Amino acid sequence: MIAYGFLPFSAYVISDFIFFHRNRSISFDVLVRQVRFTGVEALGLVVLIAMLIGALIIVQGYPLLAAIGQGNWIYDILISTIVRDLGPFIVCFIVLARSGTAITTELGNMVVSKEIDALIAMGVSPISYLVAPRVLGMIVSLVLLMSYFVACGIFGGYLVSNAFQSIPVSTFFAKLVSELHWFDIVIMLLKVAFSGLFISLIASYHGLTVNRAITEVPQRNIKAVGRGLISICLIHVSLTLLYVIITGR
Amino acid sequence: MQIEFKNISHSVKNKTIFNDLNARVSSGRCLVVSGRSGCGKTLFFSIASDIIRPDSGQVLVDGRDVNTLNAKDYSDFRRDVGVVFQLSGLISNLTLEENLMLPLNRHYKELDKSEKYHRINTLAEEFALQHYLPQRTEMLSSGQASLAGLARALLLKPRAVIWDAPMAEIDEQWGEYVLKLLVQLKAQGTTLILCSNRKEVIETLADEQLELNELFCFSEF
């Protein structure tokens, strides 16, 4: 379906979503649907995983830190795992596995059933109508999901920490906020935003490069997941290095 | 709308399908493209509707090469040419109403919403699809999906209709109705390009016929 490479495709999509308002009459519904599917319908799964991970960090970390008299480090560890490093990675991985594969499958099937041809024949650009709103929706959704994840992960940590030491909720959150640096939030947002951009671009590209056979769809899906995972790792490692260089921590 | 195919050559995976093919159809006339299965009717349909660009040659619309149209003229070309696919090409994750609304929202943004709904309802009633408007298109039978594809193409009041395998999925009763409709459209000046082997289509509508031969294509007028 697409006769050009990933980089020109990405440039085309990004230039298109900068002018998203021009195609709002046809693309807005797709954007809303993408945010609902990725950012809202995944809520239950993300909340559950966030609470479990928050709890797990406390269960594993608190006894060790308490044993060396550094129980207060638990806030720093919660921030570094839930907010800055592990949390964004897990959320991006969930979105890649859930929504990235859905995008590749949906677009691939649309190519096979000639729906993309039909859009072209109606004068509707598949990039403007199908890809740009998905990219934008994915970025918005990842920011939303990350917010849930942080809230629930920390809350899960708080619940479990009470099993070791009874702390009033206000004290717990006051200590946590005092350890939180604004740059932690910036790095978290950059990680999820760039990952959302690349997951959706890679998934859309592989969906649209299906030619005509339905058997190509799972093959493209495998490629999309593999490349999506590599891109997430590269983005997260690069931004973590940037964080270390800038903050010296 | 006059559509002309000039020196069209096209290969698929190193196999020549069209070699210097020429054809022309004038306003209010019908070109029927026929030939055995696998000879390239659907490829011709794709080239005619500018979904695939040929390796060489030109598709001229009212004397202008489609390849060289500016954005505004190309958008007008898309609005003026209704394309109907063999497998309907309806967007599967949209309702029938949303499918029909899509080309209207694309080409007639400024049109009043009530006028858009009026056009959709009128066409849906004409093809007995009004009860399916709020449903997703997977609920439609293949015949109904074909009719819905035709309705979507006619919604913009096109100056030309290009249809791959018309009547292939439609029952006899609806087939007669659609044939009459196509005759009527032709009488109103709409140009038709139909890729079909069906006798009734050729006998009733063909003003010009392009017979595609396997491996090598030639045109007969």
Describe the model.
The complex is a heterodimer of chains A (249) and B (221). Chain A contains ten helices and no strands. Chain A is mainly α. Chain A is elongated, with a radius of gyration of 21 Å. Chain B has 221 residues and is an alpha/beta fold. Helix content of chain B is 36%, strand content 24%. Chain B is built from seven helices and nine strands; from the N terminus they run E-E-E-H-E-E-H-E-H-H-H-E-H-E-H-E. In chain B, the strands form two sheets. In chain B, strands 6-7-8-3-9 form a five-stranded parallel β-sheet, with helices on both faces. In chain B, strands 2-1-4-5 form a four-stranded antiparallel β-sheet, with no helix packed on it. In chain B, helix 6 (172-187) links the parallel strand 7 and strand 8 (191-195). The longest helix of chain B has 16 residues, at 172-187. The two termini of chain B are 19 Å apart. The model of chain B is unreliable at 216-221 (pLDDT under 50). Chains A and B meet through helix 2, helix 5 and helix 6 of A and helix 2 and helix 3 of B.
